[in-house]
Write a structure and sequence with these properties.
Strands 1-2-3-4-7-8-9-11 form an eight-stranded parallel β-barrel, surrounded by nine helices. The chain is built from 13 helices and eleven strands. The relative contact order is 0.13. A hairpin with a 2-residue loop joins strand 5 and strand 6. By secondary structure, it is α/β, with parallel strands linked by helices. The chain is globular and about 60 Å long. The chain has one domain: TIM Barrel (Alpha-Beta Barrel). The model has no long low-confidence stretch (mean pLDDT 94).
């Protein structure tokens, strides 16, 4: 994908009308994609909001960021995402991972990579109108067709999952990691290995990078706002940490509360020093954030998907507007080709 895109991930810890208003605002502000999360006990229902978003927007891509193979049967997921694809006239994207807060809050372990691969294969076939073998016989989605089959992207962080994403996905969602240049290149190398081993190494493929974002003239206030995102990154690190991050990771693991997963008020995030937080986010003064997104695009990312956090008591909506005005538009203006 040659076009560099901006997306926004809106976790549904806010009430449903507010989330829907934010989706509509994101489209008005010029974002290219909106992603909604799937975690049944702590957030509002994904597919209710995705359907409402499809009916009240016209341009923006609508992504599931992300579901899993355990809390929804593949036939249920296939029907839901195919319906969203139909309602949105082809703007839906299905993001899938092995399960995080959705499964942890139920007290069950995450899916295996093999489970995920089977899930992706089944959903892809069902949404395309193909017949698959179920536990008690053949399954077929009655309204499935090529028009209702969405792209499927894989949420991945560790080397094995990144290779699997390259092998079976239409794209990958990676999270920003410490030492972004070196670490991101290592992650993308794993994706390329998976693509090279796949049946269609030259197929269209999109690399999305997901990162918490906060922009403010006071850099320390911006960093403080995105501390909950860094806490999640440190909870189950899959790459080697420096000494400060390792100590913070140990404190986070001892205190993490999934009921406050990615919530701006999460108490467990207070254990992380500013310098460690900065390794995992897009945050700081506007000019700093423009440079950060520029370096990420230059490293090979197709879409930067922000998770906006309000600064110093401000709203998530306000941060959406600030990021669009102070980061996205200046970056696009700077990156636009001279005619």
């Amino acid at each position: 994908m040659s076009e560099r895109r901006f997306g926004v991930e809106l976790y549904e810890y806010l009430d449903a009308p507010t989330v829907l208003e934010e989706v509509q605002l994101a489209e008005e502000l010029g974002f290219d994609a909106v992603w909604l999360g799937d975690s049944q006990l702590i957030w509002r229902e994904l597919y209710v909001l995705l359907g409402a978003a499809a009916a009240t927007t016209a341009r923006v891509a609508l992504g599931v960021g992300v579901t899993n193979p355990l809390t929804r049967h593949p036939a249920v997921t296939a029907s839901a995402i195919a319906t969203a694809q139909e309602l949105s006239h082809g703007r839906a994207i299905l993001g899938v991972g092995v399960g995080d807060s959705a499964v942890r809050t139920l007290g069950i372990p995450s899916a295996s990579r093999a489970d995920l691969a089977r899930f992706v294969e089944t959903v892809r076939s069902l949404t395309g109108g193909e017949t698959v073998q179920g536990a008690a016989g053949e399954l077929r989605l009655a309204f499935g067709s090529e028009r209702t089959r969405p792209p499927i992207v894989i949420g991945a962080s560790g080397p094995k999952m990144l290779r699997l994403a390259g092998e079976i996905g239409d794209g990958v969602i990676v999270t920003r990691q410490a030492r972004p240049g070196e670490r991101l290149q290592a992650m993308l190398s794993c994706v390329r290995e998976g693509r090279a081993a796949s049946a269609g190494p030259d197929r269209p493929f999109v690399v999305c990078l997901s990162a918490a974002a906060a922009v403010h003239g006071d850099r320390q206030k911006a960093i403080a706002a995105v501390r909950p995102h860094a806490a999640r990154s440190l909870l189950t690190p899959l790459w080697r940490l420096d000494a400060d991050a390792q100590r913070a990771s140990e404190r986070v693991r001892a205190a993490y509360d999934y009921a406050e997963h990615m919530n701006p008020g999460a108490a467990h995030a207070e254990a992380i020093p500013d310098a460690v937080v900065a390794q995992y986010v897009i945050a700081g003064r506007p000019e700093e954030c423009v440079e950060q997104v520029g370096s990420l695009f230059a490293a090979g990312v197709d879409e930067i998907t922000i998770r906006p956090y309000g600064v110093d008591g401000g709203s998530r909506r306000a941060m959406l507007e600030t990021f669009a005005r102070e980061v996205m538009r200046p970056y696009r203006a700077r990156a636009a080709p001279v005619r």
